[in-house]
């Protein structure tokens, strides 16, 4: 059996796998883990090839296959497949059934280009064989382009494919096994060119169907996030109304207090009312002026909320620096970031230790947004973002994701750090 054929098949499988998996979140040392599985595949390949040769199978021409070597040939294919599946599983952050699914998708792509080479061989009467270097290289490049640019880039979300059901995986694998089985049978009967046509169509059907399902799931998730953000916005709007109601109430109270002062003769009572007025006036310290009306609204709203929760909030903000942002994006970005900071402060029992620092400034042509607040407990991070500790993960955890999405929309850079019981959110926009 030609060793180049064996290595070639493993290479043909690995190229689309690289395209499919390059967009996924990786485990530690993915190259080492993946290379170890490839080496395992090569060892299994050599071992199964030796067994096949013992049974008299000497080449890649399926026409000389015998019933005694058919099962062994099946195990030879399975050895390669298992090595590739384990390579996906150990190198990327997927579970085992997702690894099988991604292998099936990769096999689909590999099989399309294998069939294209078979058709070239048949249509040219062997003048352009399926292993002709230019054709072979072109098909390898084509398989990567299809896997990465057509499939992976359009379906991945935050380094993950949204594979929701096991049935999708099962159906895809079963169809591909049928296609593979028919491929062997057709090759055995010298009708590989007929198989190539329907195999391409079947593989394309699977790929188009699965791509559409993943894109639909991606869009459904985006809709759920927008729906959740809309609910959050309604809640914040109610907070804003409540805060303004407090301000209006203090305004009316102060009017009555001033009238009372004008007609009051007792110094002791006058001092008492002045003290009350001083406390009321403190509310108006929450009004923020940054040069950006929308930013003023967001910061004032959050500062009023902080006042009601005994959280000290300091702002040093140049609102002009964020005027390039859409109003909704700016409101969502700062609103979510400050809501997270307020929520973290509420968990701190010692109210004297509650504080939030906000800085928005231009440093040498770079717009810097920093929000720092204390926190208590443990914050778990994944891929640079905090993981929500709430049990209802569907309804929570979108705040930071929306911040990340908005920052990326404006080609910014988001950094989140937790050090010395301080939570730092830093956003950098380049002019």
From TrEMBL:
<feature type="domain" description="Sensor histidine kinase NatK-like C-terminal">
    <location>
        <begin position="326"/>
        <end position="429"/>
    </location>
</feature>
<feature type="transmembrane region" description="Helical">
    <location>
        <begin position="134"/>
        <end position="151"/>
    </location>
</feature>
<dbReference type="InterPro" id="IPR032834">
    <property type="entry name" value="NatK-like_C"/>
</dbReference>
<keyword id="KW-0472">Membrane</keyword>
<feature type="transmembrane region" description="Helical">
    <location>
        <begin position="36"/>
        <end position="57"/>
    </location>
</feature>
<feature type="transmembrane region" description="Helical">
    <location>
        <begin position="6"/>
        <end position="24"/>
    </location>
</feature>
<dbReference type="InterPro" id="IPR036890">
    <property type="entry name" value="HATPase_C_sf"/>
</dbReference>
<dbReference type="GO" id="GO:0042802">
    <property type="term" value="F:identical protein binding"/>
</dbReference>
<dbReference type="Pfam" id="PF14501">
    <property type="entry name" value="HATPase_c_5"/>
</dbReference>
<feature type="transmembrane region" description="Helical">
    <location>
        <begin position="163"/>
        <end position="185"/>
    </location>
</feature>
<feature type="transmembrane region" description="Helical">
    <location>
        <begin position="69"/>
        <end position="91"/>
    </location>
</feature>
<keyword id="KW-0812">Transmembrane</keyword>
<protein>
    <submittedName>
        <fullName>GHKL domain-containing protein</fullName>
    </submittedName>
</protein>
<keyword id="KW-1133">Transmembrane helix</keyword>
<feature type="transmembrane region" description="Helical">
    <location>
        <begin position="191"/>
        <end position="208"/>
    </location>
</feature>
């Amino acid at each position: 059996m030609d060793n180049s054929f064996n290595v070639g098949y493993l290479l043909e499988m690995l190229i689309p796998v690289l395209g499919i998996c390059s967009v996924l979140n990786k485990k530690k040392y993915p190259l080492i883990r993946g290379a170890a599985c490839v080496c395992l595949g090569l060892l299994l390949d050599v071992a199964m090839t030796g067994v096949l040769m013992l049974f008299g199978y000497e080449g890649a021409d399926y026409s000389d296959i015998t019933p005694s070597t058919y099962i062994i040939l099946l195990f030879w294919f399975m050895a390669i497949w298992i090595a590739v599946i384990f390579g996906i599983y150990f190198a990327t952050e997927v579970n085992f059934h997702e690894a099988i699914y991604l292998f099936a998708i990769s096999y689909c792509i590999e099989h399309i280009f294998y069939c294209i080479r078979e058709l070239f061989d048949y249509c040219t009467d062997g003048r352009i064989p399926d292993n002709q270097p230019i054709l072979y290289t072109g098909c390898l490049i084509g398989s990567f382009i299809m896997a990465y640019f057509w499939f992976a880039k359009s379906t991945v979300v935050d380094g993950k494919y949204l594979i929701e059901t096991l049935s999708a995986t099962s159906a895809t694998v079963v169809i591909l096994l049928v296609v593979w089985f028919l491929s062997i049978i057709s090759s055995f009967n010298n009708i590989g060119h007929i198989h190539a046509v329907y195999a391409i169509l079947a593989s394309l059907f699977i790929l188009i169907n699965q791509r559409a399902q993943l894109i639909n799931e991606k869009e459904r998730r985006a809709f759920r996030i927008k729906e959740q953000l809309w609910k959050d916005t309604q809640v914040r709007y109610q907070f804003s109304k409540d805060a303004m109601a407090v301000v209006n109430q203090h305004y009316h109270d102060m009017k009555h207090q001033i009238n009372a002062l004008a007609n009051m003769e007792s110094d002791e009572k006058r001092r008492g009312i002045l003290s009350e007025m001083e406390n009321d006036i403190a509310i108006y310290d929450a009004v923020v002026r940054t040069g950006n009306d929308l930013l003023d609204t967001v910061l004032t709203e959050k500062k009023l909320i902080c006042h009601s929760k005994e959280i000290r909030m300091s702002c040093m903000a140049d609102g002009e620096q964020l005027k390039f942002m859409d109003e909704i994006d700016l409101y969502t970005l700062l609103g979510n970031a400050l809501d997270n900071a307020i929520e973290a402060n509420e968990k701190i029992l010692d109210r004297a230790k509650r504080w939030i620092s906000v800085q928005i400034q231009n440093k040498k042509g770079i717009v810097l947004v920093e929000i720092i607040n204390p926190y208590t407990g443990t914050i778990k991070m994944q891929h640079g973002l905090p993981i929500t500790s709430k049990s209802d993960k569907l309804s929570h955890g979108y705040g930071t994701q929306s911040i990340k999405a908005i920052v990326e929309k404006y080609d910014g850079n988001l950094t989140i750090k937790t050090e010395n019981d301080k939570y730092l959110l830093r956003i950098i926009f380049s002019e």
